[in-house]
Each structure stands twice: as C-alpha cells, then as structure tokens.
Amino acid sequence: MNFRYLGNSGLKISSITYGNWLTHGSQVENDVATQCVRAALDAGITSFDTADAYANGAAESVLGEALKGERRESLEIFTKVYWPTGPKGHNDVGLSRKHISESINASLRRLQTDYVDLYQAHRFDTETPLEETMQAFADAVRQGKALYIGVSEWTAEQLRAGHALAKELNIQLISSQPQYSMLWRVIEDEVVPASRELGVSQIVWSPIAQGVLTGKYQPGKPLPAGSRATDDKGGADMIKRFMSDTVLERVQKLGPIAENLGITMGQLAIAWVLHNDNVAAALVGASRPEQVAENVKAADVTLPDEVLGEIDAALGDIVVRDPAKTSENAPTTRPA
Fold it and tell me: Collapsing DSSP states into helix, strand and coil, what is residue 76?
C-alpha cells in the first residue's frame, strides 16, 4: 500500500480506500462484510469510507463493528451527510444545521468512534444557505467530531464557494468525492483544475464503473449470476448507463492491454484513476474478501504514457467527458 496526502493538508490516506456503499447492510451478509473489512486491513488499507444513508445507517453500524478493537489513531474513517435517513421526515435530509448536527452524532454512535477524520457533504443542498451549512460543519470541527471537511459531486463553482467560506471559518475543506473512471471523465475539465487551485484532492468512486471495467459483462451474453447488474437493491440502476453493447464491446478491447502488463482489467482501471495526480485515493468495495486483495495490487501499478494512449484509442468516443453532467446528475431540490 502507498499513502497520499489528502488535499493541502497533513493527512495521509491509503491510495486504495475501502468503501461500503451498496454492500454492507444490504447486498452482503454482515459476517461477509466484516471479513471484507478484515481483508482490507490485512492488505494495508487504513482508510474507510461510508455514509449515513447507506442502508439507512446499517452500513455505518457494520463498519463500526468490523473496526472495533483496531487502534483508532491508525485509521482514517470518512462518512457523509445529505440524503434522507432514519424515518426520513421533513428535517431528516439536506445540509441544514439541524440535520448536520443530529447526523454527525448518529454517525459517531454507529461507527463507535469519538470523531471522523473526514465529514463530507454527500451532495450540494440548493435549499439551505451555504453559509448555514459551512457554519454547521465548522461547529462539528471545533467540537472535535470531525477533523476535516469534504464534499461529494459538487460542481467547480460550488466547490469554490464552499472552500471560500471554509477558509473564512478557519476550517479545512480538502476533498471532493466524484464518480471517475476511464468511462466517466466529467471532472477533468472543470472540477480537477479548480481542485488543484484550491488544494483539494479527489477520492473517486466507481473507478471500475460498477464492475463494467473488469470485463465480466460481455456484449450479447447473459449477465453473470449474482453480479451488480442483476441486483434489484440499487446496483442494477447504477450500472445501466454502461450496459450497452457498444460500451461493452469497447471495454473488451482493454483486455489485451491489461494482459500485456500482467494485471487484471480491474487493476488496470484502478491504476488508471490513480495516475491522475489530483486523485488521492480510489474507492473500492467488495462482496468477497478475495476481491480486496486483488484490488490493492493496483496501488503498485505505474502506467506508461503509451499505455494511456492505447486505452484512449480502445475506448474512443464512448467516454463521457461533458462537465455539465456533474450538475445534471445532482438533485435540484431535496429528496422527499
């Protein structure tokens, strides 16, 4: 494992960070989830990402139980706030002072810790003044409940505005958590340049495009049993944008590239996002412990420029690059 600084801060995180979205508390049994966390620790991963909305709090609880007994100072634990939680009442959502204050306390209880290393705004809240949101985050920092602040799926403009307020409040907004992969590059033209300017790093989710970049989904063939594309708890909805035969045919062209490097297609995909110097970590999940050990190997892979060119040539025009997709995919009003 190698470690990278998160933004313009002194905090180092593992370049492969374990995330438990869509798995813990929903898709896999708790004992298997715990085995995956233990496998992550054995592989040298020290950073763990979750959110209060994942399985409506269950994912945080599973992670907290799995990490119990570990030296807290040797871990970096991240969680998020925004989406509806609990009974999903009228104040159980968004980035109001009330919801942030109550959510951080609930997350800490479920995670069985006194603080999180990184507390992230899971989306931008268009219905709460940004000043209120950032003041609530600042209070969480000053109370010792969070050490650093981050955001997820914010536009470059939103990131600049939040960072400016954080600076006024003397707290550190150091991370952005967007979707990023060989197939989905919408952050490259605007979010990444703004982040470099502000001293913010990316912690990217879906680096293997929900499993599509592993090559296991083949055009014209049945979906693998038990795969994310067959999951009716949310996984199938997230992966469907990549499931056309056109995309799958292009992805198959990555197989020989990975083979020539002596790595798997999944490892190639993770190494590709880590090649971006604004990316501090790639978020990987697992439904089986052995997947963790395979993913971690990508941390040691260096991709030569000619390989990057081969990847671009293989994928061609199926790559999504439009920076407007960040705002298009964000909620314009709070979820009910």
Answer: strand
Is residue 286 within 8 Å of 36, Cβ to Cβ? yes
* The pair of three-digit structure tokens given for residue 240, joined into one six-digit string: 């469907």
Pairing of strands 76-81, 47-49: parallel
* Nearest by Cα to 150 from 37, 24, 280: 280
297: left (phi over 0), alpha (psi -120 to 50) or beta: alpha
Buried b (16+ CB within 10 A) or exposed e, 98-129: ebbbbbbebbbebbebebbbbbbbbbbbeebe
Contact status, residue 243 vs residue 217, Cβ threshold 8 Å: yes
Residue 143: per-residue pLDDT = 98
Q: Are strands 12-14 and 3-5 parallel, antiparallel or unpaired?
A: antiparallel
Residue 25 has what pLDDT?
A: 54
Report the alpha-carbon distance of residue 13 to residue 158 in Å, rounded.
24
Give all domains of the chain, ordered by start, each with its CATH number: 3-209+269-301+319-328 (3.20.20.100)
Q: How far apart are CA 96 and CA 107, in angstroms?
A: 16
Torsion angles phi and psi, residue 285, rounded to 5: -115, -175
Question: Which of the residues 18, 54, 119, 217 is marked catalytic?
Answer: 54
Q: Which two tokens stand for residue 30?
A: 């708790």
- Residue 132 carries which side chain, given as an amino acid letter? E
Catalytic residue flag (residue 5) = no
Strands 173-176 and 3-5, how do they pair? Answer: unpaired
- For the chain, residues with pLDDT lower than 70 are 22-28, 225-236
pTM value > 0.85:
yes
